[in-house]
């Protein structure tokens, strides 16, 4: 997946910004959850990166089969200024 991402970025001359949960944990900004899942932790680095870089739009990926809530997602999932989605 990362190889495909990197090839696509290079092929189209895109700028890639990566927000890392691990970097936030290492910096003490986030703590590992007792259950080991990192999915809920992704929100903080993502929203901070969007605000820091002042993006108007971002591309992301989520598997619909992994989470019931994602089954309602559309091709484009518009969010408000608080990163909340209203289906």
Outline:
The longest helix is centred in the N-terminal third of the chain and has 11 residues, at 2-12.
Q: How would you describe this protein?
A:
The chain has 87 residues and is an all-alpha fold. It has a domain at 2-56. 32% of the residues lie in helices and 0% in strands. It contains 3 helices and no strands. The chain has helices at 2-12, 21-26, 43-53. The longest helix has 11 residues, at 2-12. It is globular, with a radius of gyration of 14 Å. The mean pLDDT is 83. Pfam families: PAPS_reduct.
Write down the overall mean pLDDT: 83
Q: Please state the CA-atom Rg, rounded to the nearest Å.
A: 14 Å
Distance between the termini: 28 Å
Helix/strand order, N-terminal first = HHH
Largest sheet: none
Structural class: mainly alpha
Strand content: under 5%
Number of strands: 0
The number of helical segments is 3
Task: Give the CA-based shape.
Answer: globular
List the helices and strands and how they pair.
Layout: H1 2-12, H2 21-26, H3 43-53
Provide key terms for this protein.
87 residues, PAPS_reduct_dom, mainly alpha, single chain, Sulfate_adenylyltrnsfr_sub2, Phosphoadenosine phosphosulfate reductase family protein
